[in-house]
Amino acid sequence: QVQLVESGGGLVQTGGSLSLTCEVSGSVFDMWHMAWYRQAPGKERELVALFDFGSSGVHKYADSVQGRFTISRDGSKNAVHLQMTNLKPEDTAVYYCNSKLRRSSSTNWSLYWGQGTQVTVSS
């Protein structure tokens, strides 16, 4: 069984930094992408950053985090890190890891989600 395990997050002051890690556990044959989404209270879930394995590691970022957040792959594992710097109160949200992957060459691509981790930025 495949699971996305998130770690990191917590409480930080404005201007501070945090790092999130998402690791895929279980047997994986191929990965299309790994990404971070976030959802603030009363708002829709939005894409924060995406690492596209199929396009030589293309990265995509939300405009609101461009230049402050960096997504990177852990080459030794099926994992990505999200380094967040210069955090702002509006970055406060539950952050969810997401991955499109397949467990074997004969199975379909499927989308998986982590359980979410809270990031709170105090003003």
Total DSSP E strands: 11
Distance between the termini: 40 Å
Number of helices: 0
Structural class: mainly beta
| CA-based shape | elongated
User: What's the multimeric state?
Assistant: single chain
What is the string of SSEs from the N terminus onward? Answer: EEEEEEEEEEE
Poorly predicted sequence stretches spanning 5 or more consecutive residues: none
Q: Please describe the biggest sheet, giving its number of strands, its sense, and whether it closes into a barrel.
A: 7 strands, mixed
Radius of gyration: 14 Å
Strand content: over 45%
Describe the structure.
The protein is mainly β and about 120 residues long. It has no helices and eleven strands. It has strands spanning about 5-10, 10-15, 20-25, 30-40, 45-50, 60, 70-75, 80-85, 95-100, 110-115, 115-120. Strands 2, 4, 5, 6, 9, 10 and 11 form a seven-stranded mixed sheet that branches. The N and C termini lie far apart (about 40 Å). The mean pLDDT is about 95.
Features:
single chain, 123 residues, mainly beta, seven-stranded mixed β-sheet, elongated
In short:
With 123 residues, this protein is mainly beta. It is 0% helix and 58% strand.
Which SSEs are present, and which pair or pack?
Elements: E1 3-8, E2 10-13, E3 18-25, E4 30-39, E5 46-52, E6 58-61, E7 69-74, E8 79-84, E9 93-102, E10 110-113, E11 117-122
Parallel strand pairs: 2-11
Antiparallel strand pairs: 1-3, 3-8, 4-5, 4-9, 5-6, 7-8, 9-10, 9-11
